[in-house]
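> run fold Putative receptor protein-tyrosine kinase
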Amino acid sequence: MAFRVDLSYNSFSGTIPYSWKNLGLNYINLWSNRLSGEVSLHFSNLNQLENMNLGENEFSGTIPILISQDLEVVILRANQFEGTIPPQLFDLHILFHLDLANNKLSGSLPHCVYNLTQMDTDHVYGWYPTTIDLFTKGQDYMYRVSPRRRTIDLPANSLSGEVPLELFRLVQVQTLNLSHNKHGSLNFLEVLNLSCNNFDGKIPIGTQLQSFNVSSYIGNPKLCGAPLNNCTITEENPKTALPSTENEDDESIKESLYLRTGVGFAAGFWGICGSLFLIRKWRHAYFRFIYGIGDKLYVTLTVKLNSFRRN
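> ok
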């Protein structure tokens, strides 16, 4: 009998119970907690595990290698895993989502990446839906892991060396992110054609991408940088444009607040004073009310003073 464990979006701390490896788990989701410690041996007996999400925690040590061959989703994002990426991870033939971003992984990518045959097929196995919260490009959004979107996400590590050519033979992969690592240049590319798509942003500088003809990039209106036209100031420095927009919004909010305060004060003041000035009955009633309060205060104070003197 298979079991599911979903403790995501909590504040659990400490380590994973070692006894979990004796449970028949096929789904484990610990996303966004404060769990720590090594997990290399905690999944050795979970032969039915299909979905493993340990992202956004403080796990350390090396990536587990004694893991289920039925894994379809592996999310270890934003932890403190170190060492090299184990080749065993690329022997998971039905894996369609691999996310190792924001760790301390080093070394080069194994050439056996071509073993990820599920990344290169249209067949979809049974799976449990997983939703994770990602912050990218200045925006926070919910990302739903789907078997129809093959993903290899490895940014923000210390990976180095050449990128295996086999990685680009997985033609069904829709998301491939190797940014913020220490890879060498992509000097193995002989042909590149990205024309007539919807790519946007700036073409990375200092790579082989500048050596291709402009025709490789045409048909992408929002794409810029060499060998295309230079990016505008807004595109090259998007962060510098944000403060001015925020300041304009703040100023408009302040102006609106001051305007509403002034209108409210004027309406209240003239609504009361104008009524007393124009309507005689209201004016007489108002002054009688004020005189009445003054008389009551005078009588009360006089009685209190007389009683105090007698005592």
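Residues 135-141, 233-246 have pLDDT under 50 and may be disordered.
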